[in-house]
Amino acid sequence: MTNITIPEIIKRKSEGKKITMLTAYDYLFARIVDETGIDIILVGDSLGTVIQGHTTTLPVTMDEMIYHTKMVSRGVKNALVVGDMPFLSYQTSVSDAVANAGRFLKEGGAAAVKAEGGSNIIEKVRAIIASGIPVMGHVGMLPQSFHHMGGYKVQGKEDTSAERILNDAILLEDAGVFAMVIEGVPEGLAKRITDAVSISTIGIGSGVHCNGQVLVLPDLLGLLPQPMPKFVRRYANLRETCIESLKQFKEDVESGDFPSGDESYH
Ligand code: KIV
């Protein structure tokens, strides 16, 4: 395996080879994900919900993102590491956007950043890219706009919102993003966007026509107790495995079965 670069991700569109992306939030899981040959590891601000226990991603801070990005970068040898810009780290001003994006590369060891939005953030996206920092776009259902959307709801079902999302995707391509996430839109709209832009689209809850797919790692591994949205495929039930293992440990200690002679120094 070789290091995945931004030019390689860009080339994937013409090669027709799908892009795989997963989230990771620490060294432990970043190493596991990286060993599998996954192309991109996103240090997602989804850490606010799956790691920190918040109900939305809104409370996540820049310092927390940098802390997690550093841990992930230490565990990765091959994948492209992308840092997710948290709420209000780029929306506030062009200079905040560039300075905060820069922290992901300078301090976090990421190769690129991701930001949610289209026309509303386009001057910030242009400025970050002009500073030499690669940007991944993110259109459709935008978790940082939770209150605006009235919850996590599929976007682009009506003609006007579908046109707005398509236009945002085209604007982002023009601004120079190297790839973009399409989250929570009908598969027909994801196909229209994917056909309209020359960069790769990476879908989550947006059907099969995107140029790649991303999932949140704890969702895919079955580490969380709550019911998952229908677009999540659970490849394992690690929560159950963890609980069974820990119960067994407790039982073995209480019964005197652990540690055995072989597990002791003599
Ligand atoms: O924060 C995140 O994990 C994301 C992915 C769902 C794309 O933005």
Task: Tell me about this structure.
The chain contains 11 helices and 8 strands. With 266 residues, the protein is of the alpha/beta class. The protein folds into 2 domains: 230 residues, TIM Barrel (Alpha-Beta Barrel), CATH 3.20.20; 29 residues, no CATH class. The chain has an 8-stranded parallel beta barrel, surrounded by 7 helices. 43% of the residues are buried. The structure holds 3-methyl-2-oxobutanoic acid. 3-methyl-2-oxobutanoic acid binds next to strand 6.
Quick gist of this model?
This protein is α/β, with parallel strands linked by helices and 266 residues long.
At CATH's second level, what is the architecture of the largest domain?
Alpha-Beta Barrel
For this structure, the CATH topology of the largest domain is: TIM Barrel
Associated small molecules: 3-methyl-2-oxobutanoic acid
Query: What is the typical, i.e. mean, pLDDT?
Result: 97
Helical fraction: 40-55%
